[in-house]
Write the structure tokens for this entry.
Amino acid sequence: MMWISYIKGFEAYLKLEKSLSQNSIEAYIGDVEKLTQYLEYIKTEISPDKIEPKHLHDFIKWINQLGMSAASQARVISGIRGFYKYLILENIIKNNPTELLDSPKIGRKLPDVLSIEEIDQLLAAIDLSKSGGERNKAIIETIYGCGLRVSELINLKISNISFTTGFIKIVGKGNKERMVPIGNSALKQIKIYSNNVRVHLDIKKGHEDFLFLNRNGRKLTRVMIFTIIKDLTKKIGLKKNIHPHTFRHSFATHLIDGGADLRAVQEMLGHESITTTEIYTHLDREYLRDTIIRFHPRSNRK
């Protein structure tokens, strides 16, 4: 992209004139690169000197939609402000598009985010000796491991799981399909549930392909997923307001905080584009798979 030379100049400025540490420099550069990821996602080839406040406001909407916390958004805005301050000092631009860019004002309260330790605690609290234990563990691993909506979880079909490639096909809102990578930990638990528990159920006609079933051989309801999660949070004494969407939000937050490409996170979540026209920038599947392996906290757990 045309941004590369500008970013390199900014990096030199931070190192030589600002005398920042390498970690701080990488953080600033990472903030600017998030903006370039957004521009690539919406297929807008525009140089830094042509950026307008509207582009920046739409970018902030995008990272908010992805689930980035207010603190992380503020950090990104600070980095972009620093970048444009540098462009002003170097007389590359005359007008600063960040002057009217406020810290994000989120209209609704974002759901609580589970820490990695809290997710581990929830999984550890599942009694695998009891009926439904192995299934419930597979449910938590899958909804958090793939960032699924609760409707996508209960409608997940065995025929849409590829154990060889590590992908699942999801039918999301508006019957739109997407391929989502799934980590080793979730795949392993799905196999345990399928081979040791599900195989012994008396599965009712029409429910044969649904992965998660109740004891009567029928697919689970949304209410059942809520109940499973509420019971687990109560068991470990977790005071946060936890529901199925919390795992989806935590999935996105942990990937973003880990440094994952924002476009990859958006694609895995199956978000609609925030632009007026639909975008067809489906990233390479191996790139999505690599994103999960590198950045998801439970991707490589055996």
